[in-house]
Amino acid sequence: MPPLKTNPTKKNLPLARKAYLIKEYDDLQSKNVKVTNKSLADKYSVSPTTVSTILKLRDGILTFKEQATEEANKRTKLYKRNMLPVEDALMGWFRKQRDQVDRSTLKL
Fold it and tell me: What is the CATH number of the domain that holds 62?
């Protein structure tokens, strides 16, 4: 019987770690140090493809990191809003319904 493959488990880095990885990569590049995705992957215990994806999405990650709160820095994924008009209409409906509730009858 052939041995079972032992694949590393999937690991998501928090947003703050992704930003730090990008910063480290840029610092090494500016010092003309040859850095590979494999070396960064070993350091952060992720796969080289994860490092590649993080570096491809660098602008979005860094922009979100600048605007993020401390709680958001713990996030691991950034989601694109694909249905913007529907989401905006739903949020408008929700706000309208919430404003119509008689707040004096609510018990806290």
Answer: 1.10.10
